[in-house]
Design goal:
With 543 residues, this protein is of the alpha+beta class. Among the domains are: 167 residues, Immunoglobulin-like (Sandwich); 145 residues, no CATH class; 67 residues, no CATH class.
């Protein structure tokens, strides 16, 4: 048994004290591997930077020599069998849905941040004891053992688990058939609890209805409602953590729908990611990058269907669903990364720059571009009496339920078989492996669903005529086919604008120059705005 004990001597220090007891019966070299990243965020996080005061002791309480073999792995040798103790402190000072935070109100830990995988000994269960007497109310996504401790059958389960102890937690328990569903809230509750639970119940039921069953025996929604602006969610096998703020905004319908939408997204991940998973991520190797081209499946499909199920559950009107997709189209249309990199390449490069803005027009966003690809795919499948939810159900039956991984080709084979009369290969080559505009494709096919995608001139004169997008008065983006592209620079500050027969700009450049430029007004329409309209008859059929 690998026995973890957690305590916290001073919550305001934000350090947690951790001890591991390992019963080692065969002399060997023991490696303690701390994850370098976490599921749901395909980016190196270097959690090891938050560890201090690491030490190892044998059964006689004698210090054991250890050394690091990599930046996030520690190694020591065992000469004699016995109980070996590892002690260290972890600094928990980042509040988001995938990190850890300690203060005078709570101890919140995503275990992937701070727990070691033990290698070099026989496979053993992981047992957890949390000693936080100042925080008596506890939520944990790990199963509770008969001894009152929490138990994980392997490190994969450890790394997919969350612990929260607080002075005050709001807790409700509802059921999804015979499956207990826990809703935990830390923070101020300003909304109607019954209405919220009814909405969560509706979201879960429409998703389970399409899949036919739920992959877990228990599930936890853990909400951190914060007094400052925040919005984040992370999926786990047996639950999700969602951070949202300001909590006071949840008295308003728009903010509540945002919270429900991210809840829908993360709940869908219980199937897509936590159960239906590509070969490169089953099992997770947390010690290094795990490259996959399936990011658009993991996040793009989930982003689209998360909103789709808001519509199916009656939590979005058709107009609200359309407005969400409209926002995504306008976001995607302002980035021309699809011209330079396929969604497969952008999925692979998540580890490189997937969560930063990056250089101009380099990549596609696997969430936004992926969601539009998923929507277009769903429209095509519905033409042939299938659907994307039906494909995902087949993926769950073939892969997730059997704990088997998929390869990109085997996933696309499910799409091809779902609509044999449709040329899915052409779609794949253009919009997934290729570099064609999914927005242009949606213009063509949205009328099949009773929608019309209209292209309207941008309201801003400089954006419309010169392809310049400003942040305050500073140029943030320039369209590569604009006449301004060869004259102006990102970072130029616009000092004055004169519009007569043409457009004259005075700018201040970061190198100290003040420059004037004149451009002909050619009547261009760079970075247009997109609007979706829908007929009432089609809207009723869709809902």
């Amino acid at each position: 048994m690998i026995h973890y004990t957690f305590s916290c001597l001073s919550p305001t220090s934000q350090f947690v004290q951790i001890e591991i007891n390992i019963d080692i019966r065969i002399p060997n070299s023991i490696k303690l591997q701390l994850p370098a990243w976490r599921a749901g965020r395909y980016q190196i996080a270097n959690y090891a930077q938050n560890i201090r005061s690491f030490s190892v002791f044998d059964s006689d309480n004698q210090a054991v020599f250890w050394e690091k073999s990599t930046k996030d792995s520690w190694v020591f040798k065992v000469a004699e069998p016995g109980i070996y103790r590892i002690r260290y402190e972890f600094y928990a000072a980042k509040m988001d849905a995938g990190s850890s935070w300690v203060d005078d109100q709570q101890v919140y830990l995503n275990l992937v941040n701070c727990c070691f995988e033990v290698k070099g000994t026989t496979r053993m269960d992981y047992l957890f004891q949390f000693n936080f007497p100042k925080f008596p109310q506890v939520a944990c996504t790990l199963p509770l053992s008969s001894t009152g401790e929490y138990l994980a059958e392997d490190f994969q389960q450890v790394a997919d688990s969350t612990f929260l102890a607080a002075q005050k937690l709001t807790h409700w328990k509802i059921r999804l058939g015979d499956i207990p569903i826990h809703c935990w809230i830390h923070g101020e509750v300003v909304f109607d609890l019954d209405e919220f639970l009814t909405s969560i119940q509706a979201l879960m039921e429409v998703q389970v209805q399409d899949f036919g069953s739920f992959p877990e025996k228990e599930y936890h929604f853990i909400y951190q409602l914060l007094p400052y602006p925040h919005f984040h969610g992370v999926e786990h096998r047996r639950g999700t953590v969602i951070t949202f703020g300001p909590a006071q905004n949840l008295a308003e319908q728009k903010a509540m729908k945002d919270l429900l939408a991210v809840s829908s997204h993360e709940f869908y991940h219980a199937w897509n990611v936590c159960s239906i998973r590509p070969k490169e991520l089953l099992p997770y190797n947390f010690s290094k990058e795990s490259y996959t081209k399936s990011g658009w499946i993991l996040e793009g499909i989930t982003s689209y269907l998360g909103d789709w199920y808001m519509l199916q559950a009656g939590l979005y009107s058709t107009q609200e669903f359309v407005e969400e997709m409209e926002k995504t189209i306008n976001r995607v249309s302002r980035d021309l990364g699809w011209k330079n990199e396929s969604i497969l390449a952008s999925s692979f490069d998540l580890w490189l720059d997937g969560y930063q803005a990056g250089i101009p027009n380099k990549k596609q966003n696997i969430y936004a571009n992926g969601a539009l690809i998923a929507w277009a795919l769903d429209i095509h499948l519905r033409r042939f009496e299938s659907s994307l939810p039906e494909v995902m159900k087949q993926a769950f039956e073939r892969f997730g339920r059997k704990n088997k991984s998929y390869q990109e080709g085997s996933f696309w084979l499910l799409v091809s078989r779902a609509a044999l009369s449709w040329d899915s290969v052409d779609f794949y080559q253009k919009f997934i492996a290729g570099k064609e505009s999914i927005v242009e494709e949606l213009k063509k096919i949205l009328p099949l669903m009773g929608f019309v995608l209209e292209e309207r001139p941008n309201e801003d004169m400089l954006t419309r005529s010169l392809g310049i997008i400003l942040q305050k008065n500073t140029i943030e983006r320039i369209h590569p086919t604009s006449p301004a592209y060869t004259q102006l620079m990102i970072g130029d500050e616009i000092k004055s604008v004169e519009q007569k027969s043409g457009i004259t700009l005075s700018i201040s450049r970061i190198n100290g120059q003040t420059l004037d430029f004149s451009f002909e007004d050619r009547g261009d329409n760079f970075y247009p705005n997109y609007k979706i309209s829908v007929s009432e008859q089609e809207a009723e059929e869709l809902a």
